[in-house]
Design a protein that fits this description.
- The chain is mainly β and 162 residues long.
- It has 2 domains: 14-73 and 134-156, Chitinase A, domain 3 (Roll), CATH 3.10.50; 79-127, Thrombin, subunit H (Beta Barrel), CATH 2.40.10.330.
- The protein has helices spanning 49-52, 151-156; strands spanning 14-24, 27-31, 38-41, 63-68, 82-86, 101-105, 111-119, 123-127, 137-148.
- Strands 1, 2, 3, 4 and 9 form a 5-stranded antiparallel sheet that branches. It has a 4-stranded antiparallel sheet with strand order 5-8-7-6, with no helix packed on it.
- It is elongated and about 60 Å long.
- The two termini are 27 Å apart.
- The structure holds zinc ion (ZN).
- Zinc ion (ZN) binds at residues 156, 158, 160.
């Protein structure tokens, strides 16, 4: 019998607390080790869809390896999303080095992330694709906790920290 107050397995509309490790190309790319487990509202695409759909039914303490192909992760890189920026337009505080990530403001005033992928004599190439676009993501996750979402959290489609 499902107990609403003490849910035992991952289901739609539950707040899931989860440890994760993310491996990309066989190397550890990111994990919850330093920051602690992440918490999110299951079923509301707070996390990438390819991972979220594999979590249903997992009980507290359960671990699972999940492979997410780019289509269900960060998508394929868009070759059009690369821009040639004259060095003179690069903000001074940004180091001119391949691999540096920066944020720029677009015409609507939204912050967008970019990575310097090439440094030329008087220009840099900026790649606006997500750094994980085109990558197969290998997750190892462990469910640490489950609770019911508040009605406010359900309305908002995300969790509020307590
Ligand atoms: Zn909110």
């Amino acid at each position: 019998m499902a107990n609403k107050e003490n849910p035992s397995a991952v289901a739609e509309n539950l707040v899931v607390t989860m440890d994760y490790k993310l491996f990309v190309d066989g190397e550890l790319y990111d994990s919850s080790e330093e920051e602690g487990p992440i918490a999110f509202l299951q079923g509301h695409q707070n996390i990438i869809p390819g991972l979220e759909k594999e979590l249903y039914g997992l009980e507290i303490g359960a671990s699972k390896k999940v492979r997410v192909e780019p289509e269900n992760g960060y998508g394929q890189p868009d070759p059009e999303a690369i821009m040639n920026l004259p060095l003179s337009e690069l903000p001074e505080e940004i180091p001119v080095e391949v691999g540096v990530e920066l944020e720029l403001t677009d015409e609507e005033g939204e912050l967008i992330g970019a990575t310097i992928t090439e440094v030329g004599e008087d220009f840099v190439l900026l790649d606006f694709n997500h750094p994980l676009a085109g990558k197969t993501l290998d997750f190892e996750v462990t469910i640490r906790g489950l609770r019911s979402a508040s009605s406010e959290e359900m309305d908002h489609g995300h969790i509020h920290s307590h």
